[in-house]
Design a protein that fits this description.
By secondary structure, the chain is an alpha/beta fold. The protein folds into two domains: 289 residues, 3-Layer(aba) Sandwich (Arginase, Chain A); 69 residues, no CATH class. Helix content is 29%, strand content 20%. The protein contains eleven helices and 14 strands. The strands form two sheets. Strands 1, 2, 3, 4, 5, 6, 7, 8, 9 and 10 form a ten-stranded mixed β-sheet that branches. Helix 4 links the parallel strand 6 and strand 7. Helix 8 packs parallel to helix 9. 45% of the residues are buried. The model has no long low-confidence stretch (mean pLDDT 92).
C-alpha cells in the first residue's frame, strides 16, 4: 500500500562520519523498510501550495535530511527508517488525502512518524490520519499566530466530521499577531492558547501540555528569524533555537505522541543551512526524548506519591500524583456524579499543585472540569 504513495529519498553517505545517524537508518529504495523493525519513520511531502509567498518550502524535506543524517548517534539501538517522500498530488487536496492515508497506515503499525513539509496547511492531512484510530485527539500547535476564520487547516480540523478532536493547545502565539476573536473562540471551546512571553519565562511549563498530546505540528515561523531565517515572514520574535529543541525533546518524551509535523521551512531563504541544521537538531532531540520515554502513567503504575488538596467551598477535592520515576505530576478531574467514570487524569505541573495547596483552583483544573461537563 505505501509504495503507491512514495518515492525514495537518495541519501548522500559520503558526507557522513562513521558515527553518523545516517549509518543506522534504513532507507526506502526498491522496497519499503521493514515495519516490524521500525520505531520511528521519517516521511517528506514536497508540497508548498497554500504557503502564500513561501512556496519554496516544498524543498524543505531533503534539505533537513541532508543535515540530520550527519548528526552523531548517541544510541546504537535506534530503529529509524526513511520512507522517502509522498508523491505530490494533482491538487493540494490530493496531497492531503495521500498524507492522511500514509499516517493512518503507520499509526496502525504503531510507528511514530516525523513529517517534513511543505506547507503548514498539510497539518490537516496529518490530523485526518487519526480519524479511524483515535477517539479523543489532543493536538499541540506550535505557531506564532492563528486565525480561525482564515487558517484553512485549523478551521478544517475544528469543523471536521466526524469530530474526534478533544483539545487544541496553541504554544507560543504572539498577541500582536492574533485577533482577539480567535482567542475568544478557543477559550469558549475550553481549548488552550499560551503566549510566547509566558512560555519563555518558564519553558518547562510546556511539558504537561505536550505530555497528553497525540499529534504536534511545528511552524518554522514560531522561531525567531535570527535563529531560523529560512522563511518569508521574517519574524523578529519567537522561540530560540535552544527552546525549540527543548520543546522537541518534551514532545519525544511524551508517551502518546505519534506524529510530529514540521512545516514552512524554505531553503531558498536559509543562510548557510542554519535553519535546516536547527530543525535537524530538533529532530535529534525528539528522537532522544522518544528513547527516554518513562511510560509512568498513574493508571498503569503504582510508583506514585498521592497528595490531596482542599479547594474552596462547594468545590471538588483536588488530588495530585507525583511519579517516583520522573518527578512528573498528574491531577484528577472528577466527572459529574451521573457519569459512570469517577475521574480522568490530566498531566500538570508542580506549580498547579502549589496553587491547589493554597486552596485556589488551578486554571488547568478548571478547564478540565468545564470540558468534561460540556
Amino acid at each position: 500500500m505505501l509504495k503507491e504513495f512514495l518515492k525514495p529519498y537518495i541519501p548522500h553517505p559520503e558526507t557522513w562520519k562513521e558515527t553518523s545517524i545516517g549509518h543506522l537508518c534504513c532507507f526506502f529504495d526498491e522496497e519499503i523498510p521493514e515495519l516490524s523493525e521500525t520505531d520511528i519513520a521519517i516521511i517528506g511531502i514536497n508540497d508548498g501550495r497554500k504557503s502564500v509567498g513561501n512556496e519554496g518550502c516544498k524543498a524543505a524535506p531533503d534539505a533537513i535530511r541532508e543535515e540530520f543524517y550527519k548528526l552523531i548517534k548517541q544510541n546504537n539501538k535506534l530503529r529509524i527508517s526513511d520512507f522517502g517522500n509522498i508523491e505530490v498530488g494533482d491538487t493540494f487536496e490530493d496531497s492531503i488525502s495521500a498524507l492522511s492515508q500514509v499516517v493512518d497506515y503507520l499509526l496502525r503499525e504503531n510507528i511514530t512518524l516525523i513529517i517534513l513539509g511543505g506547507s503548514n496547511e498539510l497539518a490537516y492531512g496529518q490530523y485526518k490520519g487519526y480519524q479511524k484510530v483515535c477517539k479523543n485527539l489532543e493536538y499541540v500547535n506550535i505557531v506564532p499566530e492563528f486565525d480561525l476564520k482564515n487558517d484553512n487547516y485549523l478551521r478544517s480540523i475544528c469543523t471536521h466530521k466526524p469530530n474526534y478532536l478533544f483539545n487544541i493547545n496553541v504554544l507560543g502565539y504572539q498577541t500582536y499577531l492574533v485577533e482577539s476573536d480567535s482567542i475568544d473562540v478557543l477559550q469558549k471551546l475550553y481549548f488552550e492558547a499560551n503566549r510566547l512571553g509566558s512560555l519563555k519565562k518558564e519553558i518547562s511549563d510546556a511539558e504537561p501540555m505536550l505530555r497528553n498530546a497525540d499529534m504536534v505540528s511545528l511552524n518554522i515561523n514560531s522561531i525567531k528569524q535570527s535563529d531560523a531565517p529560512a522563511t518569508s515572514s521574517g519574524n523578529p520574535n519567537g522561540f530560540t533555537g535552544e527552546e525549540i529543541c527543548q520543546l522537541a525533546w518534551y514532545a519525544g518524551l511524551a508517551d502518546k505522541i505519534k506524529t510530529f509535523g514540521i512545516y514552512e521551512l524554505n531553503p531558498s531563504y536559509d543562510v548557510n543551512s542554519q535553519t535546516s541544521k536547527l530543525i535537524a537538531q530538533a529532530i535529534w532531540y525528539f528522537i532522544d526524548g522518544y528513547y527516554n520515554r518513562k511510560n509512568d502513567n498513574p493508571i498503569i503504575h503504582t510508583e506514585f506519591l498521592k497528595y490531596r488538596c482542599t479547594l474552596g467551598d462547594n468545590q471538588p477535592e483536588a488530588i495530585f500524583y507525583k511519579s517516583k520515576l520522573s518527578d512528573r505530576w498528574w491531577m484528577e478531574i472528577p466527572y459529574p456524579d451521573n457519569y459512570g467514570e469517577h475521574s480522568i487524569l490530566v498531566p500538570c505541573s508542580y506549580s498547579d499543585y502549589i496553587t491547589a495547596s493554597k486552596g485556589e483552583m488551578p486554571d488547568r483544573f478548571w478547564r478540565g472540569l468545564q470540558k468534561i461537563n460540556m
